[in-house]
Amino acid sequence: MKPVKFVHLTDTHMNAPGKDGQFAKFQLADKVVQVFRHIEETGIAPAFVLITGDLSHEGDAEDYAHIRKLLDEGSERIGAPVHVVLGNHDHRGPFREGYLGEQPSEEPYYYSHTIDGLRLIGLNTQVPGSHNGNLDETQFSWLKQELQTPAPKGTVIGLHHPLLSIGGVLGDHILANREQVGQALSGTDVVAVLAGHVHSNNIGLYHGVLNVAAAGTAFAGEMADAEHFRMVDACSYNIVSVSPGEGVSIQTVALPTSGTEFFKFSFAALATQH
After folding, report:
1. What is the pTM of this model?
2. How is domain 4-270 classified at the CATH fold level?
3. CA–CA separation, 253 vs 231, rounded Å?
């Protein structure tokens, strides 16, 4: 069967123009425009684009309307749909109002789409008001039911909080019930789990399933020294290719940036961030 190729973005932290806020001054939406331009110019021709959360940084309905416009323009530019999930910095009510054009609601946003035979499942792992992540019982039951029927080319899952235990990152930045979720995915047709949240590229196996936590487009996080963590100007995306019967390949594309340090803070301060 023909491979399915798609693009994975994460942690875009976009805001509408003219907004105040911690990251608004860095014009992070411009980086997403640059990514879509690069996808077009290099002829990647993905089947779809997946963005795994933190679409905005504490966004309101105006921010999400702007994000939707920008992503619709990007989708048209590359000729492929864009699918998103929510992260800890996102807000469900404003997202549903500004991005989906629905009545505001605190209901989790999750879905299943099959594209060229590959099933994409998007999950909502955010815990409102917290940087922690958890998959609620309603979604977990739905997920297990959905996976009872295999897809022609397998399944990829998009969520914000990674299942991988990542060195240098506090334990509560990974999915709280990852063991339960990992066991449920083991032995199914899931070929990859794609996440963000940690602002660094990490690839590994969890319960025998490929897991990827990507760095994202807004900035990268790294150790500054033994007691401090820092955020630096960076922008990257992953090209994911799923070849039934062969496996999954991940190619990271890093776009040129200044590498300037945005912020540096102690691990004690990191523990309070969401």
Report:
1. 0.94
2. Purple Acid Phosphatase; chain A, domain 2 (3.60.21)
3. 19
